[in-house]
Specification:
This protein is mainly beta. It has one helix and 34 strands. The chain has one helix at about 110; strands spanning about 20-30, 30-40, 50-55, 65-70, 75-85, 100-105, 120-125, 135, 150-160, 165-175, 175-185, 190-195, 205-215, 220-230, 240-250, 250-255, 260, 270-275, 285-290, 305, 310-320, 320-330, 335-340, 345-350, 355-360, 365-370, 375-385, 385-390, 405-410, 415-425, 425-430, 435-440, 450-455, 455-465. The N and C termini lie close together (about 5 Å). The chain binds beta-D-fructofuranose. This is Fructan beta-fructosidase.
Length: about 475
């Protein structure tokens, strides 16, 4: 579909109008990927949080659905997750029609303005019609606050115990650490363990965790714990760190004390993964909020604020004996490729605002410059083991003082190929198909019209991306 709205992405999800932040309740059911999200429908700045809702059968085309959860007397509906309760362990559905269960945080905004510390509590809601309508559980909250102001963002996953039984595990952000809880019915939760007080990045509050099982390149089982942190990221403001280790007997034990970042750009926050994906596909699918709390409320879009990242597939890879997390663009994105342009010269006109650029890297260094008719430019380089995106002169940037910046990421190993996804107001750079990722939003006042590439890039292809 063609849109003429300034800065509106064409293939990234955005709400038609109003404010959006974190993706919530990512769950797959009967051929549909559900995307819920932190939403304030009445304004383009953050406010009383609802869960907005959209579904997709291909992770590209999103059908907007009505708001799924409205705030009520217990509070705003903050971030959380959703699971398919196939065995009806909660009793909220029936054996014939088991429920989808959403697990979220109630944030009581009035109470938050008092000296009370107990205004964030975990609660559940259920749907018996594939997420179209939701009912809040009458026994909420299911996990009351023990007296800690930051107590939120439950991510629930199902694990199989050594004895073959299943448990629900809740991974919860608690101020500057993670608490794990277990349950057999999603209604009663017991504390298993606490993690993180003295490890990892602590420049801000911990938020929106996720606990993920993986196989290493050597075939061993490993667990990854994603933890978003605001502020205190590798650039200014918010970002997502992760830990690699084991999850056994209800406890997460990291392999080492290294600080690792999921994405070195400034604009990928609060991302989490889909639950209940078909097991035969064996994929870990992630989507993030493409903004940063530093300026999310100020970016120069009009009817709406914020987009999600492209969907990404996470896996582990090894660099000189160190395990790291790779975020590859989901294979569904290849369906967006329409016309292909093979570049032979060192510069080329761009077919549209929505393009993918692919190139092989020759000697571990490269430089790519996008420019437009009003002299704005966006420069992407690798030099001296640093990958950088320079958005200082890439369009509107006077809405917040930190926005105009060069963002750099260390990459000690060799860059062999790059993929760049451009849309009307973002760039996502994947080096070696996601071994290093940088996501950045930008607001060019005229569309990018041409791209210039350095000589050490080969086999360059530009795809016009169309839904
Ligand atoms: C992360 C976050 C969450 C919270 C939500 C509120 O961006 O601060 O911790 O649940 O946003 O909208």
């Amino acid at each position: 579909s063609i849109t003429t709205e300034e800065f509106r992405p064409s293939y990234h999800f955005t709400p038609a109008s109003g404010w959006m932040n974190d993706p919530n309740g990512l769950v797959y059911l009967d051929g549909e990927y559900h995307l819920f999200y932190q939403h304030y429908p009445d304004s383009t700045v953050w406010g009383p949080m609802h869960w907005g809702h959209a579904v997709s059968t291909d992770l590209i085309n999103w059908e907007p659905l009505p708001v799924a959860l409205y705030p009520d007397s217990l509070g705003y509906i903050f971030s959380g997750s959703a699971v398919f309760d196939a065995d009806n362990s909660s009793g909220l559905g029936t054996a014939e029609n088991p429920p989808l269960v959403a697990i979220f945080t109630y944030h009581n905004a009035e109470e938050a303005n008092t000296s009370s510390d107990t205004f964030q509590n975990q609660a559940i809601a259920f749907s018996l019609d594939k997420g179209r309508t939701w009912e809040k559980y009458e026994g909420n909250p299911v996990l009351p606050n023990p007296g800690i102001r930051d107590f939120r963002d439950p991510k629930v996953s199902q694990i199989t115990n050594p004895d073959g039984t299943n448990s629900w595990i809740m991974t919860l952000a608690v101020l500057d650490q993670i608490n794990f809880y277990s349950s057999t019915d999603l209604k009663t939760w017991n504390l298993l363990s606490e993690f993180g007080k003295t490890i990892g990045a602590h420049g801000g509050v911990w938020e929106c965790p996720d606990l993920l099982p993986f196989k290493t390149p050597l075939g061993k089982d490993k667990w990854v714990l994603l933890v978003s942190i605001n502020p205190g990221g590798p650039q200014n403001g918010s970002a997502t760190q992760y830990f690699i280790g084991d999850f056994e007997n209800g406890q997460f034990t990291p392999d080492d004390t290294m600080i690792r970042w999921l994405d070195y750009g400034p604009d990928n926050y609060a991302g989490v993964t889909w639950s209940n994906l078909p097991t035969d596909q064996n994929r870990t699918l992630f989507i993030g909020w493409m903004s940063n709390w530093l300026y999310a409320n100020k970016v120069p879009t009009k009817a709406w604020r914020s987009a999600t990242t492209v969907p990404r597939e996470l896996s582990l890879f090894d660099v000189d004996g160190t395990l790291l997390l790779k975020s590859a663009p989901a294979k569904e994105l290849e369906k967006l490729r329409s016309e292909e342009y093979k570049m032979s010269q060192e510069s080329s006109a761009l077919p549209s605002e929505a393009v993918e650029l692919y190139a092989e890297v020759d000697s571990d260094t490269f430089s790519i410059t996008f420019s437009n008719e009003v002299g704005e430019k966006l420069v992407i380089t690798k030099e001296n083991s640093l990958v950088s995106i320079d958005r200082r002169n890439a369009g509107k940037n006077d809405f917040q003082r930190d926005f105009a910046a060069i963002h750099s990421a260390p990459m000690s190993w060799e860059a062999k190929e790059i993929r760049i996804f451009m849309d009307a107001s973002s760039i996502e750079l994947f080096v070696n198909n996601g071994e290093l990722v940088m996501t950045s939003i930008l607001f060019p006042t005229s569309p990018w019209k041409s791209v210039e590439i350095s000589e050490n890039l080969d086999s360059v292809k530009i795809f016009n991306l169309k839904k």
